[in-house]
Design brief:
By secondary structure, this protein is mainly α. It has 39 helices and two strands. The protein has three domains: 2-83 and 96-288, no CATH class; 461-746, no CATH class; 750-794, no CATH class. It binds a DNA duplex through residues 513, 536-537, 542, 585-586, 588, 590-592, 634-635, 657, 682-683, 685-694, 696-697. It comes from Hucho hucho.
Amino acid sequence: MLYLKKYFTEGLIQFTILLSLIGVRVDLDTYLSNQLPPLREIILGPSSAYTQTQFHNLRNTLDGYGIHPKSVDLDQFFTTRRLLNQVRQLDRLSVPSPELSTWLVHCDPETVVSAASQSSPSITLDNGASLEDVNNSETPTMRGGGGALESTYNPSGEDSTLGAVAPEDSQEQSNRDGNDDLTKEDIDLIDILWRQDIDLGAGREVFNYSSRQKESEAEKPSPEEERAEAQERWRNGVNLQEAQPVDGETGESIPEQIPGLGSQTSLSLQECLRLLEATFPFGEESPEFPAPVVTAELAVANEEAPSTSRGLPLPPPLPQLDLEQQWQDIMAIMELQEMEVNNTSENSFLSTTSNSTNTSGSTSESGSVGSFGLTRSSTLIHQDVSLHQASLPSCSQDFPTLFNPEMDATSTPRTPLLTMSSSNSSNVNSTFGATNLTGLFLPPPLNSTNNITCTPVLPDPFSTLLEESMLDEISLLDLAMEEGFNQAQASQLEDELDSDSGLSLDSSHSPASPSSSETSCSSAASSSSTNFSEEGAVGYSTDSESAAVEPEEGAVGGYQPEFNKLCRMSYQDPSQFHGLPQLDNVNHNHTYNLPLSSSFDEHPELPIPTGKKMGREKQSKLKPQQDFLDKQSSRDERRARAMKIPFSNEKIINLPVEEFNELLSKHHLSEAQLALVRDIRRRGKNKMAAQNCRKRKLDTIINLEQGVHDLRRDKARLLKEKMEFIRSIRQMKQKVQSLYQEVFTQLRNEEGRPYPPSEYSLQYSADGSVLIMPRTMTDQQTRKPEKKQKDKKK
DNA sequence: GTTCGTTGTCATAGT
DNA sequence: GCACTATGACAACGA
């Protein structure tokens, strides 16, 4: 299989290069990425979408957040995941530019553009013309080139299954652009390639893009009918033998449609490369071609994928997957923190992508995908995006320029991301595999300015804590630098900062509980479904049987356990609780909330069927059910059931007093039953009260923590302002001193000589005038106040 | 078996 | 005085 893959890969590439060189227009890259995912997979390896481990990893990292499947946070969650995929796509830098240029080497018989003029757009693209230029260009060649760039650079259309929707619009557009010019030979050639794909064992089930293909077919007019028929044949897998002669050994179809190409296909790839390099001098240090990247990636291709590419600039799959894996790990770590920032980052992100994409106004993914080949070499738009996202946890330490917005704005057009990809891709395994990438993104603790620039994008609570700590550290450092603050004072201040609060912020989050959400949600649920919430109670229907009360009576048990769970999950404010692992175990849902079989609770007055009416089998079946009911019921429920109380506990607890008394008067109950009913009501109300009390207690604690946190931030801010003032005062003193020296040196006595500084000095009078006085007089003047002060002290 | 968090319950004070 | 709420304390329960 490996041999077949190698054979097919090289053959396909040679075939395409030769077709391009002889003038047959085959935008194979579009097929490679859009029409034929299997081809791309055969060449580049299985995509992450079809890789089980990737899938599980994705599920683990993303779903590990614990979002309930019914939670309304899913919208935000999927938005996050889509944005994450956008960011992840930015790391796929390993597609080399020579490959792009290779697909562009063809003569367009329709546009009648010279080879130079054809290559120039690609060069311009590769060189990184502004995105606006590219976007505004509407020439077919340019659009086709853009499609080639998109599809070639992005070997992972699998992201569409990972949540990031592939830029189908732009791709289809590019496909149409590329396919409209296809001749019958080209179509047959593609058909051959498809059959080869099938023959090579790529199962049709892994393709599964027929729907997209059908869509594209539906959009395409009749000229594509023939190719559609070929595709249909390919899908149905029939008439393969009839359509093409098959190699007896390998089962591959023999492309007889292109006579004379059989000998050319034996042309070595090195020769093709040489030919391409003669056309486009990659190796030269030209501003138009990113030579270091090309060489690096070629080296990578030679080192790590010799069997498949042999110097052809195919991206090495394994490092890429590693890099992607690392990205996913990082993103998993960032996941919680990112949920909050999404609202802001998404806007900026989408705005940037919408500005930077030409054909993907609706799909932001295509922006990050499609224009990446442009971004990598020129603009920083997507780099900003990646920086914005990637710098969420912190700034990079090992790559200070990589995720540094300041450096980002002032760095050279060669993006650091690309530099990382090119220069480190050769040893990407050793670099990213052995080390924890998360450490790369953790900031150095005292990396003052850069960290400050990064902190605004950090989400709470991490950002605030980090900001605060950095403020403290900065303040202490500045303190130590300032005059009047020695190291001891700085340490003293540090102690103050550390000990000013009896509460530890880190530990103070632990008692946080969504009980408020619990109560509020249950309140909402009850108020929407019950008449009793108007009573003033929170409507927290207490017991499990609340899930099944008489519907005609208002369904006191609007507090359904499932809804309760949903409420809990959805109400959790990520900005407040996310990123706090201490809260993971807060959402306990104990058994009193579990659902109960509604048959009895809806009609508790119905007597439990006795053994006389039921067979032994039914009894044996019912017994575990009753045991289960008993286990799930509260004690009061069991008591009420035992005492045959003819109404539900919810009514007992939540009915207003008047209605409750009326209910009691309707039913003639014994004293024991009345006592039990009143106890149930008392306990139920007390239970709600206890829950409310605990909720308030937690809210109070949280508010206090927040207050402490705010106070500490204010203190740090004030301290920082103080040191800034001290610094400015010192600077003013220095200025005054320098001015003093300047003025003093320019003063001359009657003889035209300068005053000796040891004997004279300048004195400032109260009216603003400056006098030069002998130091003896000034000393006497200064001694007099001292004496006066001493006298006052005495 | 112990620890810890959650929940229910009781007693009591306050409204 | 009654109904209700608030809260501390305790026990049961489950992870």
